[in-house]
Design goal:
- By secondary structure, the chain is of the alpha+beta class.
- It is built from 6 helices and 8 strands.
- It has an 8-stranded antiparallel beta barrel.
- Helix 1 crosses helix 3.
- The two termini are about 20 Å apart.
């Protein structure tokens, strides 16, 4: 059977108190991620840890498409947590962000093994600027950054029903990629300077892979 190209993404940010981290990670790695990736339409799942800031933990699940999380199977799992999952919900409570995304642009090649780091940028843009913003991102910004040594692949996503509306995911070799002179040169262009003042709710963070694709 042909392999599905993932056209959707589920991103889940979670944060728990330090005294609960050991059990939280045991639950995620031994029960939860297997349960979620077993749902039809889920292709794989990876876990990451923020190098700084909160929420500390991130899971990225590649989906056949963005409709999967609205489906009966996923909603059933969410509505009927296992005893261990119910206990974990008490640990993170409101410290969770769960967004579904649709892939809108990609450039570069996925590495043979999972990239050890991802750099994630989320932002909004006024509706009047969206066409220019997307032209800049797809024609100049993403191709330029994806060509920087140490960046394997760059993808853009559109949030299905959440904010910020846009998210870019860069798979990188090490955190120094985004502080390199080559990255700065590709980023700081005349077109970028015209777009940057219009960016809203911009969030940027580097995450380290802690559990490869399952």
């Amino acid at each position: 059977m042909a392999e599905h190209r993932p056209l959707g993404l589920l991103a889940v940010w979670l944060h728990v108190a330090p005294e609960h981290e050991d059990e939280f990670n045991a639950w995620y790695n031994t029960e939860h991620i297997q349960q979620i990736t077993g749902i039809p339409g889920f292709i794989n799942g990876r876990r990451y840890m923020a190098l700084e800031g909160v929420p500390k933990y991130l899971a990225l699940y590649e989906l056949h498409d963005e409709t999967i999380t609205a489906g009966r199977e996923f909603q059933h799992v969410m509505a009927n947590p296992t005893p261990w999952s119910a206990r974990m919900r008490g640990f993170y409570q409101d410290h969770r962000i769960r967004n579904t995304y649709r892939l809108i642009f990609t450039i570069g090649q996925a590495p043979a093994t999972d990239a050890p780091y991802v750099y994630i940028v989320r932002m909004d843009i006024p509706a009047a600027m969206e066409q220019n913003f997307n032209d800049w991102y797809n024609q100049e910004h993403l191709p330029g950054l994806a060509a920087v040594p140490g960046c394997f692949r760059a993808r853009r996503f559109l949030a299905v029903d959440s904010q910020p509306k846009y998210m870019a995911v860069y798979e990188i070799e090490h955190p120094g990629v985004i502080t390199s002179a080559a990255w700065a040169k590709a980023r700081d262009t005349a077109w970028t300077e015209k777009i940057r003042p219009h960016m809203q709710r911009r969030e940027r963070r580097v995450y380290q892979l802690i559990r490869p694709a399952k």
